[in-house]
Design a protein that fits this description.
137 residues, four-stranded parallel beta sheet, Dna Topoisomerase Vi A Subunit, Chain: A, domain 2
């Protein structure tokens, strides 16, 4: 028999995500996301770290990467692109490029968040906010 996931369960999921958000707020200088909806979802989850949207930048990838590298040289950044095939491939490319330019990319945070979201069937960063609604009593 399968147990129903209730508000208490989703509250625990939110707590696990909140711990990751806290780590980002304490240790990272920048979070890269794909679009504005991703940023909105992370802000709802109390992310305070600066966020830059990759797809909405309207500049060539090379120029975008150069700007990030020059503005955040030697800093720690987090790449939180979607967890679908395209998002994962883009996150990998961006991570490698940023590391080649001397930035520290916090890969573990992306991986851990991905594990949490996968258990909930979530593949898009912007969908994280749906867990908030499920956690309400």
């Amino acid at each position: 028999m399968r147990h129903k996931k209730g508000p208490k369960y989703f509250h625990e999921v939110i707590q696990a995500i909140a711990k990751l958000i806290e780590r980002i707020n304490e240790n990272s200088s920048l979070v890269l996301v794909e679009g504005e909806n991703d940023e909105r979802a992370l802000r709802m989850l109390k992310l305070k770290t600066p966020i830059t949207t990759f797809c909405d930048s309207k500049m060539p990838r090379f120029e975008f990467m150069e700007r990030i590298a020059s503005n955040y040289s030697g800093s720690s950044v987090v790449v939180l692109f979607d967890y679908d095939r395209e998002g994962a491939a883009a996150a990998k490319r961006v991570t490698v490029e940023l590391e080649e330019k001397g930035l520290r990319v916090e890969r573990g945070i992306r991986e851990k968040l991905g594990e949490i979201l996968a258990k909930e069937g979530i593949r898009r960063v912007e969908e994280m906010q749906s867990i908030l609604h499920k956690a309400e009593f």
